[in-house]
Amino acid sequence: MGAQKKGGGARVVSDDSEEQSRQRLQAILLADSFTTKFRPVTLERPKVLLPLANVPMIDYTLAWLESAGIEEVFVFCCAHSTQIIDYLETSEWHTHPNLAVRTIESHKSISAGDALRYIYEQQTETSQIQGDFVLVSGDTVSNMPLADLIREHRERKKRDEKAIMTMVIKKSKPSPITHQSRLGTDQLFIAVDPVTKQLLHYEEDKVDHHARGGSVCLDKSLMESNPSVLLYNDMQDCNIDICSPEVLSLFEDNFDYQHLRRHFVKGVLVDDIMGYKIFTHEIGSSYAARVDNFRSYDTVSKDIIQRWTYPYVPDINFGGNRPLKVGRQGIYRACDAVLSRSADVGASSVVGYGTKIGNGDRILNSVIGNGCSIGSNVVIEGSYIWNNVTIEDGCEIRNAIVCDGVRIRAGAVLEPGVVLSFNVVVGRGFVVPAYSKVSLLQQPMKEDSDEELEYADSSSGTADRLSGLSLEMESKASELGPDGAGYIWEVCEGAHDEEWKHSVAPIPEDKLAEIAQAMDDDDMEDESVVPTSGELKSDADSINTDVNDPGDDYSYFEKEVEGTFLRAVEEGIKVELGILEINSLRLSYNMESADCAGAIFYSMMKHAVDNPHSSASELFKNASNIIAKWKGLLGFYVKQTDEQIEVIMKFEEMCQETAKELGPLFAQILHVLYDKDVVQEDAILRWAEEKAGADEADKVYLQQCETFIQWLKDASEEEDEEDD
Amino acid sequence: MPDVQSTVLEFVNKLRKRKIEGSQATAKCTVELLRSVISQQRVPHSNQASALIDAVKAVGEQLVAANPVELAVGNVVRRVLHIIREEDLSLATAAMAGLDLLDASDDDDDGNDHNCKGVGYMSAAVAAAAAARSTLRPPSLQTLLEGTPESAAVPYTSSSGADSESKTADKSSITRKLKHDVIEGVNHLILEIAGCHEQIAEQAIEHIHQNEVILTLGSSRTVLEFLCAAKEKKRSFRVFVSEGAPRYQGHLLAKELVARGLQTTVITDSAVFAMISRVNMVIIGAHAVMANGGVIGPVGVNMAALAAKKHAVPFVVLAGSHKLCPLYPHNPEVLLNELRSPSELLDFGEFSDCLDFGAGSGSPLLQVVNPTFDYVPPNLVSLFITDTGGHNPSYMYRLIADYYSADDLVM
């Protein structure tokens, strides 16, 4: 509601019940990832139009949204917006009866936060977010049903105004060696309330677990305010969110929110002023994943081929794609693909329409697009060949991505992890080194803020630049052999080590061994192993304590006071200044002056004990010296009888527990305190009275002081008599 | 028209997304859709039949392409095409009988191809009438033997030329009547599909006897009605239900059987062989029945059929007439299977580490195959029970020939 009210007076909020009954199910689809992970491919084509098993990613997302009952989807286009809009207008989504696809175009947005702010500002009477909406990005592949989830979200919202978002999570174990999820994203730590499913903590762990020792820091208040907390490290964030309109206005209010997870989710979790809450929903049998990097491109493609995404699989026409025929061993083949008899197309492969595969080719675990022509004796393993690619005889391609229109001349070799962008030509017999990214466009030189975009310039210039480049290319000796064309992009420093993580190629054995070795070393240092997931229950008694556990706070306070006191002793600070410092501590910890007195006395005695001494008498001397010196400080806090009693009690406690050496000296030191006027006669007598009824064990010190107390009593009686 | 177009699109969409399950539901939706296509189709004055056939074929092709695995769609489309042809034929026969033989050489100055065909049909009809076959449904076996009427009819058309005014008026009435008759026929088909359970269930008493043990697999509404009909006739018997992993539709069937008061035992699919010696009859519902008498049924059915064969237990298949498919399964294009999601077998979360392609060779070592259907060859089937009675597997082709015209087999 907040969003609608803030949105200006123009819109009238309709009657609540009416609105609930007939709310169009809407979705916002961000057709831009706002990252550079798919460069250089995304310099020429937006990520959502990249083919995943020969179907553009956005078709998966739209087909899923449509069948999940979404009626209206706002496609937010930023980079290459014209390409996306053109595609959508020619696709069957444009005229789809059940799903209205509306495009929103903006060139200024450089993050998801900007996009949502733009959408919020651009809302008009006809196109607006009316209620709860689904927020996904255009590279999501899923088959989960949404209707129940949206209903759950709405009902929760009705009960709790502050429940603004439901986040979809799915169980997926991270690799024990690399601490990376199978999608190539960092390991995720989340804390969830097991009953309400409220999200309490969200942390994407960067893989530098050497530095962190594999530990997670949780706010202590988390444990205090929740009776039980479930911690997971085997969950995968599906990047599918059901949001209430408040989310948009939150983005509007917090103009520094850029990233959905790093800024928004963390911001909401930390902010306890607004008190907004995020909930989680774990999906069981359905599939959901986001193509975030080349590694997840590989993983999701394989999941599609293995049919986890059913019914969004290549042999079913789900979104205007031409269905392929599925054969044994999960081989998908177009009916007009020409395969040579001697070609060996192995398990889990896809061969597109109009593709010719020559003699003696070996193809395994690969996706080959439409209209490709592949010569003879070519080896293609674990690779993704897009459309209209020409591969000449005798090439070897392993774990590579080859974009549209690429030409690989005879005998060339692509080593694992290579990405060839559009229309690149690899020269005869050239070996493209592992993990290299090749494009016809030169690598942008500056690492400026534009890096956040998928493309550097406005979308118009691409074609012009391309033609210009090809001219330039002829004059310049190519980096890809004499008859090749394309620039090999340099990997920026620092990112070089990370390259293997996000590549399509599997992590090489030696790298894995290296990491495993490093981890073993870590384990030697630190044996504690965190279980995959477990329920942490804070003790019942610590919950029951109403004020934030005063015992705990007091011990902190005591330590602080001790520190202050020692500093005062060492640096010879004056008593007045000492009082000032301790007063400020007292305020910040919200303590009584009796507590201060106890703490100061404790520090003094501790100091006395800590000072070197050989015998009890020397210790006594130390103690009395200190008391003499700092009685002003102590005296400031022991003006009342109660406070003096507190000091005695504290002293007694110390003798019993922390500083047993002082035990025999109890009576003597008490006498000193009396002499120095720190403790008054009344206090001692009242202490004695209180203790009189206690257990025998507690009376040890009382008995020790018996003569002293007797003397005090007599003295006071005498005084009384004299007064009379 | 636009609303028909949109309902067609919507249905195509549902078929594609696999949102309609069960051949009966699909058949019902298909036939209702085709009825509205026919009723909305504006027909020209001449050659109504071919216009209707073209319209139905066009829609039918879309529907079949949307989900080729669901054979009931193709079956129903072919049935409707057959109805159109038959009605056309019977009208022509009637017209011939009323008019002179001379009318057969009626005319058409515009002489377009469709008209020729129409005339061709009529001529064929004349031939048929001459053969004194007054039944509305001419024996299809003969039609098959004759080959396609079109080719046979072409020579007759040469004798065109003469015409008469009265004829055109007559024709329009014929065509109006044709559409009406076709819709009537389609309505019959709808009733037939809706009533096939009862028709089949009526025969239950003849097959299930006192104190027998019946084994079934998966969940079929036809089987449920069949068993319940026997129960209602005071037969007391026991039912073993094989659970039908991985979707466990057998559990649902068991629930419903118990709700109707039948003695039910649920067994695992793998226990079928062990239990078969105690079973008197296996009764299953089919997904489709092929022209050779082979059966496409829920996965695991072939295993049950083999077990039944081994122990000489009768293996009975219940199939409504919409499940009879005029195609032969030796064509791999026809014998399709639906491979569903592996998540029905495995929990993705548990196995996610086996599917981590970042480690090892990068090739998926774990494969999951989850087929929906199984093929049972005809020699394992003892009896088919359709709404027209019990039949031998070797008789199925004949039954099928009654329902479909040879022209429509390939769409």
TrEMBL record, chain A:
Domain spans labelled W2: 551-722
Keywords noted in UniProt: Cytoplasm, Initiation factor, Protein biosynthesis
Chain spans, region Disordered: 522-553
Coiled coil (UniProt feature): none
Subcellular location: Cytoplasm, Cytosol
GO cellular-component term (any): eukaryotic translation initiation factor 2B complex
GO terms, molecular function: guanyl-nucleotide exchange factor activity; translation initiation factor activity; translation initiation factor binding
Family annotation (SMART domains): eIF5C (SM00515)
Family annotation (InterPro entries): ARM-type_fold, eIF-2B_epsilon_N, eIF2B_epsilon, LbH_EIF2B3/5, NTP_transferase_dom, Nucleotide-diphossugar_trans, Trimer_LpxA-like_sf, W2_domain
Protein biosynthesis recorded as keyword: yes
Pfam families according to UniProt: LbH_EIF2B (PF25084), NTP_transferase (PF00483), W2 (PF02020)
Family to which this protein belongs: Belongs to the eIF-2B gamma/epsilon subunits family.
Assembly and oligomerization: Component of the translation initiation factor 2B (eIF2B) complex which is a heterodecamer of two sets of five different subunits: alpha, beta, gamma, delta and epsilon. Subunits alpha, beta and delta comprise a regulatory subcomplex and subunits epsilon and gamma comprise a catalytic subcomplex. Within the complex, the hexameric regulatory complex resides at the center, with the two heterodimeric catalytic subcomplexes bound on opposite sides.
Name of the featured protein: Translation initiation factor eIF2B subunit epsilon
Organism: Raphanus sativus (Radish)
UniProtKB/TrEMBL annotation, chain B:
A single MF term (Gene Ontology): guanyl-nucleotide exchange factor activity
Any Pfam family the entry gives: IF-2B
Principal location class: cytoplasm
InterPro entries attached to this UniProt entry: eIF2B_beta_subunit, IF-2B-related, IF_2B-like_C, NagB/RpiA_transferase-like
Record region (Disordered): 147-174
Gene Ontology, cellular component aspect: cytosol; eukaryotic translation initiation factor 2B complex
Location of the protein in the cell: Cytoplasm, Cytosol
Keywords: Cytoplasm, Initiation factor, Protein biosynthesis
Family in the record: Belongs to the eIF-2B alpha/beta/delta subunits family.
Subunit details: Component of the translation initiation factor 2B (eIF2B) complex which is a heterodecamer of two sets of five different subunits: alpha, beta, gamma, delta and epsilon. Subunits alpha, beta and delta comprise a regulatory subcomplex and subunits epsilon and gamma comprise a catalytic subcomplex. Within the complex, the hexameric regulatory complex resides at the center, with the two heterodimeric catalytic subcomplexes bound on opposite sides.
Name of the protein in its database record: Translation initiation factor eIF2B subunit beta
